[in-house]
């Protein structure tokens, strides 16, 4: 009898141990299942919050604005910052130009040139303009980062488009249309910009500067700063007109004040401003501007047989 009781107790004990082990195993599996699902849900929540936060700050590819002209979102900067930037850019460019001319007068190849000729020489002017642009853009970057706590390009609604090549092609097509129309318009026989294209080196420097550097800087100044700040006061439609007129006026000196040519530049500026507003992207208008300028210099390259036939006729 005693042995039977011991046997039954050992069987009960082993059964209880098995049940306890099974319960522990099931509890452990349940813990793993819950922790995995909780971890997945947490990651999904974190990812969704990151996506929503970044999209609220600056959507990478926002939908085009509806027609008619919808209001432009109010920028973080005002017209005072814009005007200060323009004045600083002019003063910085003049300062750098004076330094560049002073250096050039001590070089053998520029020693006999008049000051007016030095001021029209790309090898003297373009490095000075580039230095002035770098100074102003660096100051803007520092100001936006440390005062507004925003990235410089984010504050200007840069937003690189997914189909960036389409905007480049659009710029090429715009240049073709402008060239065809300009062929039937009266133009002066010679313009000041023609004097800057006398040698292959001058032409290559003008091409690089005009096809890459100038479009970026002009878009930052006119459609990155001036246009959105101006919409605070006069709305989108009038801001487009005023921005485009000022854009044409800064090119008037290169075109000898020919009002027909300046009017064409004003129309081109209107197209660029419309692209900037329509796609909410400064990068889009910059790409169109690059395509437009590059096409003009490409046509000049063909006309001068690879920048080897000067002066231009």
How far is the N terminus from the C terminus?
A: 127 Å
Strand content: under 5%
Number of strands: 0
What portion of residues is helical? Answer: over 70%
Derived structural class: mainly alpha
Low-confidence stretches: 1-9, 15-57
Radius of gyration: 32 Å
Helix tally equals: 9
Output the helix-strand order. HHHHHHHHH
Q: Please give the domain count.
A: 1
How is the main sheet built? none
Shape field: globular
User: What's the average pLDDT?
Assistant: 81
What does this structure look like?
With 313 residues, the protein is an all-alpha fold. It has one domain (79-303). Helix content is 73%, strand content 0%. The chain contains 9 helices and no strands. α6 (164-183) packs across α9 (282-303), α7 (200-249) crosses α8 and α8 (259-278) packs antiparallel against α9 (282-303). The protein is globular and about 55 Å long. Residues 1-9 and 15-57 have low confidence and may be disordered.
Task: Provide the fold topology.
Blueprint: H1 2-57, H2 79-104, H3 115-118, H4 122-148, H5 152-155, H6 164-183, H7 200-249, H8 259-278, H9 282-303
């Amino acid at each position: 009898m005693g042995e039977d009781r011991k046997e039954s107790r050992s069987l009960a004990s082993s059964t209880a141990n098995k049940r306890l082990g099974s319960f522990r195993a099931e509890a452990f599996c349940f813990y793993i299942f819950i922790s995995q699902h909780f971890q997945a849900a947490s990651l999904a929540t974190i990812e969704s919050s990151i996506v929503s936060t970044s999209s609220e700050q600056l959507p990478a590819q926002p939908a085009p604005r509806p027609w008619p002209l919808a209001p432009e979102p109010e920028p973080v900067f005002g017209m005072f910052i814009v005007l200060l930037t323009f004045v600083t850019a002019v003063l910085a460019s003049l300062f750098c130009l004076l330094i560049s001319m002073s250096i050039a007068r001590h070089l053998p190849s520029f020693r006999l040139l008049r000051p007016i000729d030095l001021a029209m020489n790309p090898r003297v002017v373009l490095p000075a303009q580039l230095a002035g642009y770098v100074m102003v853009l660096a100051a803007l970057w520092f100001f936006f980062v440390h005062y507004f706590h925003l990235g410089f390009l984010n504050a200007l609604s840069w937003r690189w488009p997914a189909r960036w090549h389409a905007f480049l092609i659009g710029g090429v097509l715009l240049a073709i249309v402008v060239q065809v129309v300009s062929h039937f318009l009266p133009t002066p026989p010679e313009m000041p910009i023609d004097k800057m294209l006398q040698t292959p080196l001058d032409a290559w420097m003008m091409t690089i500067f005009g096809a890459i550097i100038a479009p970026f800087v002009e878009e930052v100044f006119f459609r990155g700063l001036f246009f959105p700040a101006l919409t605070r006061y006069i709305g989108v439609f009038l801001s487009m007109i005023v921005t485009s007129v000022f854009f044409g006026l800064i090119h008037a000196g290169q075109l000898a004040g020919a009002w027909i040519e300046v009017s064409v530049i004003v129309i081109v500026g209107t197209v660029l401003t419309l692209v900037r507003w329509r796609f909410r992207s400064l990068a889009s208008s910059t790409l169109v501007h690059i395509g437009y300028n590059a096409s003009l210099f490409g046509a000049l390259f063909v006309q001068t047989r690879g920048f080897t036939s000067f002066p231009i006729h």
